[in-house]
């Protein structure tokens, strides 16, 4: 599956994604340089780490002879949207297993997924927490037939190997990679892909996301048979939890767009960038630091 230009489906992907320096007096005051890795520009429907995580999962599904993908997510899941789009472009049927009860009319994310051909089903929150257990998966297989299961967020061995490729596209010396994380896969992949002294700082978008420490280590073992110690997670900028927001986050999004012409996704990237600027303002990064922030 070639990802340079157009792949075999005709899906045109923009790789390597642009690396753009930020001009901002708040950075100048602290002597810090920030570059945006514009993975959000890889493809309008399968952007960023969603494409990187799905790339090798799609290839594996095809190799194993599957014609249907099944994946999991919340009602506002960018991963569910991207899987629906990928299925549409690559010729897979898709099933989205959504956390919680059905609410009609569908929100924009789920309506888009349905428009791209995805079948939706719902699990109550108690059952959803058990979504990886054999009896739950067997019940889904009985209902929908043989499926290639892509885990929530696309985070598994093939997914983190795709994320690791991002590091090959960086041609500057940097001290810190920053990314938002909901399932740990992007942090796991980037950290495993780095060969320099650079470290990874992941901003969790989940309230109570401390479990992600072990999840990152598990994903590295699954994808690379190693664990690295060049990463850390920040749990302080979730703004109330997944898909939740507060007025100060909305104000930051508006201000950032005014300054830089970039509209940040409020579920993930805005929380990361808010946290990054707060840490810069409080002097958490040494003078002359170079930071790459991944927008997905």
Write the layout of secondary structure elements.
Layout: E1 5-6, E2 12-13, E3 19-21, H1 25-30, E4 33-38, H2 48-63, E5 68-73, H3 78-90, E6 93-99, H4 108-115, E7 118-123, H5 125-128, H6 134-144, E8 148-150, H7 157-164, E9 176-181, H8 185-193, E10 199-204, H9 212-224, E11 231-234, H10 247-260, H11 269-281, E12 290-295
Parallel strand pairs: 4-12, 5-6, 5-8, 6-7, 9-10, 9-12, 10-11
Antiparallel strand pairs: 1-2, 3-4
How does this structure look, described?
With 296 residues, this protein is α/β, with parallel strands linked by helices. It folds into two domains: 5-44 and 156-295, Rossmann fold (3-Layer(aba) Sandwich); 67-146, Rossmann fold (3-Layer(aba) Sandwich), CATH 3.40.50.1100. It has eleven helices and twelve strands. The chain has a six-stranded mixed β-sheet. A four-stranded parallel β-sheet has the order 7-6-5-8. A two-stranded antiparallel ribbon has the order 1-2. The radius of gyration is 19 Å and the shape is globular. The model is unreliable at 1-6 (pLDDT under 50).
Short description:
The protein has helices at 25-30, 48-63, 78-90, 108-115, 125-128, 134-144, 157-164, 185-193, 212-224, 247-260, 269-281; strands spanning 5-6, 12-13, 19-21, 33-38, 68-73, 93-99, 118-123, 148-150, 176-181, 199-204, 231-234, 290-295. The protein is α/β, with parallel strands linked by helices and 296 residues long.
